[in-house]
Amino acid sequence: MKRKMEERSGLRSAIEELSTLPKVEAAQYDLDAARIPTKPFLHVCTLILQVLDKIGPTMAVLRQDIHQNIQRLEVLCESNPTKYSNMIEILKKEDSEGSARDSTSCSRAILWLTRSMDFMVVLLQRLVKDPWQEMERAVEESYNVTLKQWHGWVSSAAFKVALKLVPDNETFITLLITNDQNWDNLREDMQTLVALLVPLLEHIHSILGAYRLDRLKST
Fold this sequence. Notes:
By secondary structure, this protein is an all-alpha fold. The protein has helices spanning about 1-20, 40-55, 60-80, 85-95, 105-130, 135-145, 155-160, 170-175, 185-210.
């Protein structure tokens, strides 16, 4: 019960935190004026880890990457909490240093965390539309339209093998629903989270594009 309530609280907390952010425009290219709060971004990424845990071993590699990228950004933010409270400052710093494209850069961490959230948004959209669809197919199709084009053959092959371990849809939905809600409540929360995430992700992608980072593939 305690674990389920904590997870429920995390979902609502992420929604509430995203709700407090100012509205952004995806086409905003004024990098000096742009702002993407780092803390709420990492908060939502942590939520994604909780959902990926429900999918099981299939997402183990992706989950590890997300966790490492979150840690990388957290370490940098701790070095200067005020300056790096805006993710744009992180991108500016590494762009000026010429390190943004390095495999261990925080800029790449932002890129891959954004792509991971793209995957989760598409998966949640599919579940909201049809909660009883075949889970394996939903995960595979969500992966195909978000992450697959950026993964090398090793990651793609590993995903294809692990896909057979995805739980059935009823099991997955049951794991997501907490004791204080039903499917309608969960669906409403999922829709709200998606509605808040989509414009934020579009904005981040536009900024990454301005820094010429949006086409980078896995090394």
